[in-house]
Design a protein that fits this description.
This protein has 332 residues and is α/β, with parallel strands linked by helices. The protein contains 13 helices and six strands. Strands 3-2-1-4-6-5 form a six-stranded mixed beta sheet, with helices on both faces.
């Protein structure tokens, strides 16, 4: 398979093209943007600190942290708590496939950081239904959405985001933090304020695909109309790793001091979820490229990851026994 000689995007990736030097169009576009990126990050850091001054201490919690237990979200939680002294409510969406080691990590880390930790565990029959449907042939997601994450992972994230927003609105929490890596989400969305109208539209965009997969049973995981009717100011989404220093080795060292350990039962692209291996396998067979390739290619361009390491993560096969076990668990 032909790949970009600079990043790792393959010829099967949507809208990719290569010039005579073998460099892809995504890398060439990045070259034009690169000179402005550091100044944009500095501007975002200043906005972030100003935002924290505005919200700190106004309510019982300053921030809701969407905490998967993986390395990026764990490090983000550490930064918010220790570097910025925020009172954080950590929230975990238990999709039924979280590594036991990830739960052990969260128990240790939450105790070390002194944060409240809420775990939401939806009924498993519904989770199994929507994950199995997402792995099927009828897709409720646009092609562009699937360039960033598999259909199964997108389904999981939509549920997690819906629940996060419901918690934040119910408890008047002004910030919702995510641990996206610099390769997962664009810099422009690193601090995202929404109007009430935009919030309603976002909720519908999250919920509509899930209704097509699971019917009205997904309703409890999204804010009700009554909660939105009186909404005057929506929570602000933040993903600080987009504009703060990002060094995987240093991050793992920092969270390791809190008792975090890398799970041995997850694939190379996840440090918390067993479902990920199955989701990756389905995505590769259906679309012909790895669902993490866009993130890894972006990390390579930004200098956060070597091309060799990215290729190793992409080319390491999923554990067939785990993939088969998950498939049997989901299959009706």
């Amino acid at each position: 398979m032909r790949r970009c000689v600079t990043c790792v995007l393959p010829e099967t990736f949507p809208s990719v093209s290569f010039d005579e030097a073998g460099v892809c169009n995504y890398c060439r576009q990045y070259e034009h943007r690169q000179p402005r990126l550091e100044s944009q990050r500095e501007t975002l850091r200043e906005r972030f600190e100003k935002l924290l001054e505005e919200v700190r201490g106004l309510h019982a919690y300053d921030c809701l942290m969407a905490w998967s237990g993986g390395k990026d979200s764990t490090y983000t939680l550490l930064v918010l708590r220790e570097n910025y002294d925020l009172n954080v409510l950590a929230y975990t969406f238990d999709n039924g496939f979280v590594s036991p080691t990830a739960f052990e990590n969260m128990t240790r880390v939450s105790a070390q950081l002194g944060v409240d930790h809420m775990i939401v565990r939806p009924r498993f029959d519904l989770l199994r239904k929507v994950f199995w449907a997402a792995a099927g042939d009828q897709q409720p997601y646009h092609e562009k959405t699937l360039t960033r994450a598999s259909a199964v992972c997108t389904t999981c994230m939509n549920l997690a985001k819906g629940i996060a927003l419901r918690i934040a609105l119910t408890q008047n929490i002004p910030l919702i933090a995510y641990g996206w890596s610099p390769g997962q989400a664009p810099l422009t969305s690193a601090i995202f304020r929404r109007t009430p109208e935009m919030t309603r539209s976002m909720i519908e965009a999250l919920a509509a695909p899930l209704r097509s997969l699971g019917g009205d049973a997904v309703r409890p995981y999204f804010p009700e109309d009554e909660l939105l009717a009186e909404l005057k100011q929506a929570p602000c989404d933040i993903h600080p790793l987009a504009f703060l220093d990002y060094d995987e080795e240093k991050m793992i060292q920092a969270i390791g001091k809190l008792g975090w350990r890398r799970p041995l039962d997850t694939d190379p692209n996840s440090s918390n979820c067993l479902l990920n291996a199955y989701a990756n396998e389905v995505h590769k067979k259906r679309l012909g490229y790895h669902p993490y390739v866009m993130e890894l290619a972006s990390l390579v361009r930004q200098g956060h990851l070597s091309r060799e390491e990215a290729l190793e993560r992409l080319e390491t096969a999923e554990d067939a026994s785990i993939v088969e076990r998950i498939r049997k668990t989901l299959q009706p």
